[in-house]
Design goal:
7 helices; 258 residues; 7-stranded mixed beta sheet; alpha/beta; 5-stranded mixed beta sheet
Amino acid sequence: MSELGDRAVLHDVYDETGSRVYHDVSVRDTHEVRELVALVRRTPGAVLELAAGSGRLTLPLLALGRHVTAVELSAAMLELLSERLAEAPERLRERCAPVQADMSSFALGRRFEVIVLGTTSISLLDEEGRAGLYAAVREHVAPGGRFLLSTVDIVRSGGVAPTAEPEAEFEVVGASGRAYRMHEYWPTEADARTVTVFPAEIGDEDPVTVCTTTVGVLPADRLEAELVGAGLTVLARHSLPDGGWRHHDVLLEVGVKV
C-alpha cells in the first residue's frame, strides 16, 4: 500500500466494487460445500441461508431440490446473487427467495428445518451481534431442525497452532481469469485478521483497486460455549479439509434444547 501511495483506491470487500472482486475470487471455491450439502441432506425441508453473499453456497443448496431463503445484508452482493439466479435454470431460480437483512437481527415470520451460516461468516459479528444471531436462530429453526455454521479452529489436534507467522501472501486466479495477490495479516493470538486483495500485476496505469476486510477470529471452543449459553445444543464438530489457507476450519452441527 505504501508503494502504491495515492494510486491505491481502497474498497471494502462488501461494497459495490469490492463485492465483485470477492465474487471473482470465491465463486469457484468449493471449500466446505460438500460437507455442508451432505449435512443438509440429512434433514428434509426448507433452508435458510445467512450471509449468502453472491451465492457460492446458495446454488448447491438449491440443487438439492430445496427451497432456499437467502439472507444477505450487502445490496451489492444481493445484486450479484440475482445475476447468477437469472442465468440459472428456472427450476432453481423459482425456489430461491433473496432477502436483504442483517443476520444479527432478522424476523422472517416462519421457521426453517435447516439454517446455514458458512464461510466462517459468524466471525463478521461482534459479541453483541452474535447474541442477536443466536436469538434469531432460536426463533426461526423448526423443531428437530439444524443450525450449521463454520468457524476457525485455532488449535489443531495435537495442540499445534495453525500459524506462527503474522503475514502470508497467496496468489489466486479468479473465475474471470484475473490474477490476484491475497495478503493476510494475523498476529499470533490476535482476535482478528486482515485480508487485503491486490491485482497480481500492477502496471503504470491509475488507479489501482485494493480491497480489504478485517475478520474476527472466533475459536471453535469459544463459539460452542456461546451457543450452549444461548440455549442451543452442539451436536457435532466436523473437521473440514484445508482450504489452501494456513488456518483450519470446522463445521458445527447445532440443535435447539427442548
